Amino acid sequence: MVNERREAGDDPARTLELLWREPGHGASRRGPRQGLTVDAVVQAAVELADSEGLEALTMRAVARQLGVTPMTLYTYVPGKAELLDLMLDAVYLQMPRGEHRAAAWRTKVEAVAHENRELYRRHPWVATLPTARPPLGPGLMTKYEHELAAFDGLGLDDVERDAALTFLLDFVRSVARATLDTQAAARDSALSDEQWWAANEPLLAKVFDPDRFPLAARVGSAAGAAHRGMYSPEHAFTFGLQRILDGLTPLMSRPPR
Question: What is the C-alpha separation between 65 and 116, in angstroms, rounded?
Fold first, then answer.
């Protein structure tokens, strides 16, 4: 996806001003249509992206959903790049967050992974946004603070704590993106993975030589039978998360620095 969140002409100061508006600031700002707010614009955009995807998200489409003209919308948000930042920060701020202070570290870190997986389930478009320069708003900071706390008391220094969290979140995001790819393939072909393999199996049997590729034949068949298709997001998430936790275990057993 083209990075629409950082284009020439963007005003970072204006974006930060919008992200960090004081409580009630959005409600008090009135434009040509009385009652419209920055928060209302962002919520309408999130709902549109949730239901139709980012491909359908335009300033004109959001304005239509709110019953205003596109020019009215620009009274509240300068453009689509800023709107995407506001949308992402809003869903970060709205994420359900459990309280796990008394839990074991694996339980706390696993909970962070599940909270982010639920974020992608509710808002699939979030997985498609670039993450190199996320919006530095209250939603992101609240999320970061909460997730870093899952590693409290484990002997990690600050750089290791940040790296461990990044490692975990990158994994969850990769599974979310792979899930979207699987869903798109099924939607575009009108076939599930299981149906697609069944349709192509006769041709594959003609061209594929199991004696030449014995491991691919054996392992591929076993995985395909287990997943009833080429890929299982549920298995990938469960298996991968446990391996991440296992990999972090030696760090957690060190004496505190």
Answer: 28
Radius of gyration of the chain (CA): 22
Q: Are 139 and 89 in contact (CB under 8 A)?
A: yes
What's the rounded Cα separation, in Å, for the pair 134 and 187? 30
Count of other CB atoms within 10 angstroms of residue 62: 24
The phi-psi region of residue 31 (left if phi > 0; otherwise alpha if psi is between -120 and 50; otherwise beta) is beta
Phi, psi of 7 (to 5 degrees): -115, 160
Residue 55 CB neighbour total at 10 angstroms: 10
Q: Write the DSSP string, 61-124.
A: HHHHHHTS-HHHHTTT-S-HHHHHHHHHHHHHHH------TTS-HHHHHHHHHHHHHHHHHH-G
- Contact between residue 45 and residue 115 where contact means Cβ atoms under 8 Å apart: no
Work out the pLDDT band at 167, boundaries 50, 70, 90. very high
Average pLDDT over residues 155-175: 95
- For the cut 60, the answer to whether the pLDDT of residue 33 exceeds it is no
How far apart, in whole angstroms, are the C-alpha atoms of residue 160 and residue 131? 20
DSSP symbol at 252? H
Q: What is the 3-state secondary structure (H, E, C) of 146-159?
A: HHHHHHCCCCCCHH
pLDDT score, position 193: 67
Query: 105 to each of 25, 226, 239, 247, 257, how far by Cα in Å?
Result: 39, 31, 18, 13, 17
The 8 Å CB, 24+ separation contacts for 155-158 are: 155/251, 155/252, 155/254, 155/255, 155/256, 155/257, 156/251, 156/252, 156/257, 157/257
pLDDT of 89: 96
